[in-house]
Amino acid sequence: MNPVLDDVSDRLAAAAERHGGKLPAPRLTPDEARELLELARVVAHSSERRFAPLATYLAGCVAGRLASTDEAAAFIREVREELESEQPETV
């Protein structure tokens, strides 16, 4: 998807292997990346900005347990839309 993210993914997989785990390097689909970035935007603007990366990590933890990448993007979109609907209107 992106050379920087691919490099980080490869490094994560290599680190996991050094600790006894055999995992393929994770890759994001364009839909997953878009939804994660949108989730980060919503969280950053509705709470402390520092919570945005933690929210995307939590979304990734849950999405990684889902059966398909289509489900993952839809799941992240659903949570983001819930958060957006709870934000107060700005004038």
Automatic annotation (TrEMBL):
The superkingdom of the source organism is Bacteria
Q: Which InterPro entries match?
A: DUF6457 (IPR045598)
**Which Pfam families does the protein's record reference?**
DUF6457
Q: Where is the DUF6457 domain?
A: 12-86
Q: What is this protein called?
A: Molybdopterin-guanine dinucleotide biosynthesis protein MobA
Protein species of origin: Candidatus Dormiibacter inghamiae
